[in-house]
Amino acid sequence: MQGRLLPKYNNRYQAHPVDCWQDEFHLAEDLDLDCVEFILDYNDFQKNPLMTTHGRQYIQTITEQTGVRVISVCADYFMEAPLHAENEQAALQSVDVLIKLIKAAVELKIKDIVIPCVDGSSIQDEHLRDRFTEVLISIMPEAERYKVNLSLETNLNPIQFHKLLADIDSPRVTVNYDIGNSASLGYNYKDELSAYGELISDIHIKDRVLGGGSVILGTGNADISGFFKLLENYNYQGPFIMQAYRDDEGVGIFKEQLYWLLEMFDQIL
Predict the structure, then answer these.
(1) Kind and range of the H or E element at 195?
(2) Of 4, 18, 91, 99, which has the highest C-beta tally within 10 A?
């Protein structure tokens, strides 16, 4: 996940590091990582290289230099400006941003755009969920035309999420599964995988305590090894994104958790 290898940007836990984003590609190369999940923030989104022709060309150049690709985007923009905003003008602007992002994804061969529906953009309320469904259905022809997945991250329970996916009913609406967030909400990964495991296209690796925040991998309530063992039954082909606990500096605590994860994979796979 973008920013995890760098010191906190503007003291934010998760943010696109506007002035030094390119440095992370070289750090990722040194760690033998093959991809970075870009972040599109609401603040200063126009400065994000994803949103300009020159910026996208720069991303391609860095990718050629390092071999580290951008194959997914976490569009945190929509946490601040939800697609289902009650204000019609604000919602239309968010739709316009998403369409531009879909076209940028095509240029960079990005497969997944993660749309968070959590915290301020939650769709737990049925009215908001209906509005979100309506807006997304209107956008899906663009995603289908360009073959870009809109990967939804929600705090819905498995039954609600399954119904949402069925209501939108598009091969390009998929699931972003966040291991830690599900553990924090008290959901059972077995129920979740049973409900929509074959639709997961992007995985965020994180650990959290029940009802609480992010902690170092292996120290919270997420059954990470159990999840990955069961995931083998679903022919998952997408990326594994480290959205793990971070401190002020980034790279040291990232390495510690990466090595823990690789050792766990050696034991279970």
Answers:
(1) helix 189-196
(2) 4
Task: Answer yes or no: are the C-beta atoms of 216 and 255 closer than 8 Å.
Answer: no
State how far the Cα of 184 lies from the Cα of 215, in Å rounded to an integer. 11
> What are residue 113's phi and psi, to 5 degrees?
-115, 115
The H or E element that residue 116 is part of is strand 112-117
β-pair type (207-208, 214-215): antiparallel
Residue-number span of the structural domain to which 110 is assigned: 23-268
Query: Is residue 103 within 8 Å of 147, Cβ to Cβ?
Result: no
The predicted pLDDT at position 176 comes to 98
Instruction: State residue 20 phi and psi, 5-degree precision.
Output: -140, 25
Q: Check residue 123 and give its pLDDT.
A: 97
56 part of a folded domain? yes
Evaluate whether residue 16 is within a structural domain: no
Token pair 């980034």: residue: 250
Which residue(s) pair with 152 in the sheet? Answer: 115, 175
How many domains does the chain divide into?
Answer: 1
pLDDT of residue 268: 87
Dig out the tokens for 223 from the structure: 């059954």
Q: Would 215 be classed as within a structural domain?
A: yes
The 3-class SS string of 139-166 reads HHHHHHHHCCEEEEEECCCHHHHHHHHH
Mean residue pLDDT of the chain comes to 96
At 141-195, the pLDDT tens digits run: 999 999 999 999 999 999 999 999 999 999 999 999 999 999 999 999 999 999 9
